[in-house]
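Aim 2, interim progress: modelling of the 6-O-phosphono-beta-D-galactopyranose-bound target.
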Amino acid sequence: MTPTTLTAQPFPEGFLWGGATAANQLEGAWNVDGKGPSIQDVMPHGIMTPPTDEPTPDNLKLEGIDFYHRYRDDIALFAEMGFTVFRFSIAWSRIFPQGDETEPNEAGLAFYDRVLDECEKHGMEPLVTISHYETPLHLAKAYDGWTNRELIGCYERYARTLFERYGQRVKYWLTFNEINSVLHAPLMSGGIWTPKKQLTKTQLYQAIHNELVASASATKIAREVAPQAKIGCMILAMPTYPLTPDPDDVWAARLAEHDSYAFGDIHVRGAYPGYYLRKLREEGIELEITDADREVLTNTVDFVSFSYYMSVCETADPAKRIVGEGNLLGGAKNPTLPVSEWGWAIDPVGLRIVLNDFWERWQLPLFIVENGLGAADVLTEIDGVPTVDDGYRTAYLREHLVQVREAIADGVDLLGYTWWGPIDLVSASTAQLSKRYGFIYVDRNDDGSGTLERYRKKSFYDYQEIIASNGACL
Ligand code: BGP
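Predicted structure of the complex, ligand included:
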């Protein structure tokens, strides 16, 4: 028996089990019922390729997996797995098609009413992301996204509309998906139209500031409009280990982690931390920060949520830096870890480390709102029933959940766990469907062919069993 299993405790009663999605990756219906285009509608080839000017037919997100028309059946499948929570995002451009209007689009609002009806029917807690990589295209093109302070007001109007409409029905809210990822993916995460290479550091950090103010402002609005709502920030968590025990490498790893810690520190403590101010000073970045901004930032969150897929290493010596092909966000490859088919390091213990780290740092309830394995699944037949024999996915799930259980035994206060992409959907980084995360297979291929039929994979039943036993069968 390894020491890590000695302290295993059960998952707490009421622990929320479920899955997480994002509107642009599954809804489709990109221009239906008054929806305006979002930046995703002009990103047909993922985050490494420049956007197109207009939506093009080769963009799989335009149809997605047609959740917009099939949400009832899909949510019923989630219920069959035993989900007690369903994380989804609201497409900003369904509610405000251009982003800067004053009146919302009723047909867009009505769609999410229907989604919430289904959640309620199945006793599932909704967990809503207000902005998940879906800035309305007009805000990106006409304002250059979050580099422009005007977006704060547009977002406030949007958030207020959501709190007023759904505030009685939705308890858990996330302001921005992976807010720290704007550092690496300025268009996807910050709606910034200026190409990454031309963007100045000042523009980038001003965009970050504007998003942080908007996030805190949403919390403030929720306190007035929907006081029972719990507001969380959402951070892309990527623990960074020193590549060697050399103290310079240890410090290099710490500096890399500051990049994500800063976002949590500001959301939880309500002010910029000293190390962040130092970085801005040393890099000659002068931001427009008003006294009113400082005041708004003091509206802090109720919980901290995060995504966790992988860890990376860091070193002070560029010559020792081997960047793994899957490390889209940088960092050196960890020679001790296996990787997924897309080169993402698989590190279950890293999840325990993050949970302990975040809990010790912020002492607020945590929520794992993304974790999962993208794989090139093959549809097969077992006893005449189409399925995917995805033992690798169950292994990944179990190994990560064992570490979650350990973290809970370590004393971490954890609200729940939502697996990323419980149903196959379009990948954010590649914009393809062949990178599949689901427990449910969707018959749609990268060339757009397929019937869109849904099939339960083997992992569907494994997750069902884990949820039914509240994690006791791990
Ligand atoms: C996160 C995003 C999700 C999701 C996930 C998996 O960063 O919040 O939108 O897509 O990563 O990434 P990918 O789809 O690129 O495999």
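The CA atoms of residues 239 and 311 lie 5 Å apart. The chain has a mean pLDDT of 95.
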